[in-house]
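G., the chain you wanted modeled:
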Amino acid sequence: MNRKGRRRTALYIRVSTDAQFEEGYSVDAQKEKLAQYCKLKDIESYEYYIDGGWSGSNIERPEIKRMINDIIADRIEAVVVYKLDRLSRSQKDTVFLLEDVFIPHNCAFISLNENFDTSTPYGKAMIGILSVFAQLERENIRERTRMGMYERVHSGLWMGGGRVPFGYDYDRDKKTLVPNEKAEQVRQIYDLYLKGYSTTQLASMFDVSGDQHVAAILDRITYLGRISFRGEVIEDTHEPIIDEVTWLKVQEERQKRAKHGVSSSAYLLTGLLVCGRCGAKMRYQKWGKGLKIYCYSQQKSKPSLVKDPCCDNIRYDAREVEKAVLDDVFCKTKNISAQKSASSVNISAGQVLKQKYDAAVQKIKRLYELYANDGNEILLETIEENKKQLADIAKAIEREEKTNTAARELEYKRKVLYNLCSLWYNMTVMEQQRALRTCVDRIILDGENIDIVYSL
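Predicted structure as tokens:
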């Protein structure tokens, strides 16, 4: 509160152009009308705030800023202007001043020309109406912006606004994204993540702002040359940095780590162990000179992980469990043949379909040329039939690509498992963890039973 004296009235005046002298908006003309109002209302304590030569399109004006500061300091009880547009020509700024400056600080606002007084019931109602229209205008601007972005994206252009994804630059001439010198870092981040490195570890290795930035890079579909906008994915909008197989592997690994709560750990089976009695996760714990594995339900310090407080599953010797798991995994590698998998057939089928598609396109072009020379209406029917066939081939190619992606992923897992036995003892712990998580979905421990669920 202002303890030095009573609050005064602010008489605000704004003039932006010389033409306003002719319209009765000169500083002297406004001062005269405002002084008359003060005399009529017996207001003796007042002060002029005059912005001469300033636009009303925003509130970046020296005197209005001084007035706002005085209102916040509780030196002003009312603001009087000759006309509403003297305060601001922006409805957004007017509502801001009314709702965020004047009203919270018990400061009335009066505009003489419009007979607008916020200290009266009518004036308070007008504030509500202004707020509604301001909100409507904001919604209209937002919708126009969204529509503009939607049209840009559907035209294959970058949506504009916001930050350009790491590894890309925005080409203003082409209005699209182009890979820059950091694109190679993006590829390395994907590669190292698949080798077992955590987002925190990767954040310390690359020119990024933190582990959340790494997570965003790993999740972003933009690196496939696509743009996701309002739930819709638009293909081939710019040059990709990551191939689809790698991107899908990373997404699967992201889901697996989220599911198992995998973090950087020195323990081989961390994140894979599940209690067969209650379904809770299981953890490693140092036990004397050795290691034990036991159910999280038996650890009361983490109640969020408890499934059954009465779980009576046994505690396992970690090295015995690891040996049993590895014996089973190595045994399974002997059953995986190195023969050529079905994925090569799928790839060949895709190539055949592509050749068929190209031939159909050329056939339609020739039919159009014949029609242009001949004008025979029967040719139009033939063209339509061929276009339907072309659409069917395109759908078949799309289905084949999806099948081929799944087949390549399965083949990748089979190869990892096939080579595991010979490479195992030359791997780091992190590489061993990564290899196991590629092939194993979970390991269920229930009493004396160890059940390994493979993801092949």
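The first strand starts at residue 8 and ends at 15.

Shout if anything looks off.
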